[in-house]
From TrEMBL:
Pfam families: Glyoxalase_4
The species this protein was found in: Sphingobium cupriresistens LL01
Top-level taxonomy: Bacteria, Pseudomonadati, Pseudomonadota, Alphaproteobacteria, Sphingomonadales
Protein name, as recorded: Glyoxalase
Gene3D superfamilies named in the record: 2,3-Dihydroxybiphenyl 1,2-Dioxygenase, domain 1
């Protein structure tokens, strides 16, 4: 297994993600209680071709990415009630743990392998300038969904920059908004 530029293994867990009702309050709590940060925030996020359970999806979310050591933490605040992988989990379990993120350099092969295991493909999209993502509904086996993330050079550059900001972080500037023109 090779390591990605931010210290996590290719085809291993790189991210743990949580849905939250209030992104700003959650970032404060995760920083104060778990020492995660700094946070890089992407507002009004929606990809170019989101498909939720095979149908077009127009749900929008605010997300924040930060690191605790080499583990990336993602916080997701849905901004509407439109059908999504996030809303379906919130409806059943409320807010909290949502998915494990696994980066893979062999995205198509990894998707085929998870489909062959019988996991339902719940959501697909591309993250502009980064790569493709696919959520598999693994909740019958794992405690949440599984997100496969294409390990492109652009993804490694973005996540590497976020990780580098966390190394020796002194607590200043805990939230860093990414302008809409610089969205992932």
């Amino acid at each position: 297994m090779t390591l990605l530029t931010f210290g996590q293994p290719d085809d291993g867990i790189i991210q743990m993600a949580y849905t939250v009702p209030d992104l700003d309050a959650a970032m404060q709590s995760f920083t104060a209680d778990l020492h995660v940060g700094p946070w890089f925030v992407f507002r009004q996020l929606s990809g170019p071709n989101p498909l939720y359970r095979g149908a077009r999806s127009h749900a929008r979310n605010d997300i924040a990415l930060g690191f605790a050591g080499h583990m990336q933490i993602e916080l997701i605040q849905p901004l509407d009630d439109k059908p999504s992988v996030y809303q379906e989990t919130i409806a059943v379990n409320g807010h909290g743990f949502h998915h494990f993120g696994v980066a893979t350099r062999t995205f198509d092969r990894a998707c085929a392998a998870h489909s062959a295991k019988g996991y339902d493909l719940a959501f697909t999209d591309a993250v502009e300038g980064v790569g493709r993502i696919a959520y598999f509904d693994t909740r019958g086996v794992l405690p949440g969904m599984l997100e496969l993330i294409e390990a492109s050079s652009e993804l490694e550059a973005l996540f590497g920059m976020i990780h580098a900001a966390s190394v020796d972080w002194d607590g200043r500037c805990p939230v860093r908004e990414i302008p809409s023109g610089d969205r992932i």
